[in-house]
Amino acid sequence: MFQTLVPAAASNTPAASNRGVLSAAANGLDGFIVQHGGDLDRVFGRSGIDPEQLLHPTLSLPLTNYCKVLEEAANQTGCDNFGLRYGQQFRPQALGLLGYIGLCSATLEDALINFSAAFPFHQHSTLIELVDQGECYRFDYQVRHGAIAERRQDAELTMGMALNLVRHVLGPDWAPRQVAFEHAKPQGWHEHRDVFRADVCFGQRCNSLLIPKGDVVGKAMPGSDPVLLMLIKDAIRQLGDTGSGTSNGHDATLLDRARQTLLATLHLGEPALDEIALTLGLSEWTLQRKLREHGISFTQLVDQIRQELALNHLKQQNLSITQLASLLGYSETSAFSRAFKRWFGVSPKQWRGGDCRV
User: Fold this and answer.
1) What DSSP string runs through 38-72?
2) Which of 34, 244, 247, 276 is the most buried (most CB within 10 A)?
């Protein structure tokens, strides 16, 4: 039986989706973008990022903007594996308070446990979980913000950060048992295998690293400091709690929660209002009413999510039209093609072929 050492933190609390991520997660991002030939003003401008914020590692960035700047950097630099490469060079020390929570722990096993436990204070609207699977620990990570559909670059960056925490102790040649990503297999997937030195699976339930226990149990952290660890834990907890009294509360996050649920279940088939309402702990009538208060109907929300995902996956060129239709919950490819033409005026095949770009 699997045991969760660090309970999942998906941040459905009222303030969670209003906070974001500490800007330490973007340490050195400006230089890395320039190094890859990117136009910094253009990338930051399109993503709504104020460069001044990146100078202060304890300031908070909206998670939507953070994920967007990574995707925009990949697009603008032409480096499809931007997040992977950014994560490969991202050392624990650069991650600010969260990184030092790992570094100051007593053992590598403790570092993983403490890192996972503190992560919700570093970044909100995110699932983070360390699962005991017997011979291995499974480190799970997934952004669960309803407004964020494109998050591949963030996932690859974060897996690289976790990898480097382990390699800080075990050396650059250490490899996990397996790596999993939720997004489709990119064209440059061989680079992922080379970076992690392990089998990498795509299109999975969640982003994860499978870490053999024998590699981490009893391995001392070279910079262990229990007093500093206690102080840093208190500091990151206080930062994570800042702003918990935001005014628009539960209803402000309902739209995000509905989007999260739809994103997680869309591949299972046509979304049903009653099932989504049940998952959210609401009656159908209440869910419809609350969505109307946000200016959208259930059908419109489903359409909106399908449009975003369709464009995202068509850009990646990794799924056939039939596979994409199934991923979006359509029972027939023809139904997806009709919907896509209704949305954008062309078929998915024409859009992918370059006849139109939205």
Assistant:
1) --HHHHHHHHT--GGGGG-TTSEE-HHHHHHHHHH
2) 276
